[in-house]
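Can anyone check this?
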Amino acid sequence: MFTLDESVTWIEKILRPMIVYITLIAMLRVFGKRELAQLNPFDLVVILSLSNTVQNAIIGPDNSLVGGIVGAVALLAINYVVSRLTFASKKVEMVTEGVPIHIIDHGKVNEKARRGELITERDLEIIAHQHGFENSCDIDKLVLDPNGSFLVDGKDEIKDARFKREVIKKISEISKQLTELNAALQKG
């Protein structure tokens, strides 16, 4: 349990997780940001299965505690190196993380980008509701960020209407408070 399996060398134990890490990063880049954006049950099953599938590729035939720790350290080390390189270089960042994808720009859906990221019309409606809009027609700009999050900006008239409603609500609350304060002052 505490000894490294003799059939696996130290170099192999270190290289295996690094190769799997690089391969998975490349695969996620190829298959799209949607895998990161919103996990539906199918995506969750794929991610869980993926981790189980690559487990043996990472640890090989070595099931020892030391072998697992060496594999984990190698994974964390490659992640640290890639993170540092990504931080230091815009070019590396673009290659490893990708670029933002504009799904809706100036209120118009970019169908090629939407289909390329496998975002359905229903997904657009859900994203709109999550960001406080009635439907996707209220969105002026929708960008799928490289980290999988959606950046949403509403149309000006929608933002203006929402702002007016919030201001009216605040004025109503202040008016109510003033009425209560005035009544309390007249009693006292």
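Reply from J.R.: I decoded it. The chain has a mean pLDDT of 83.
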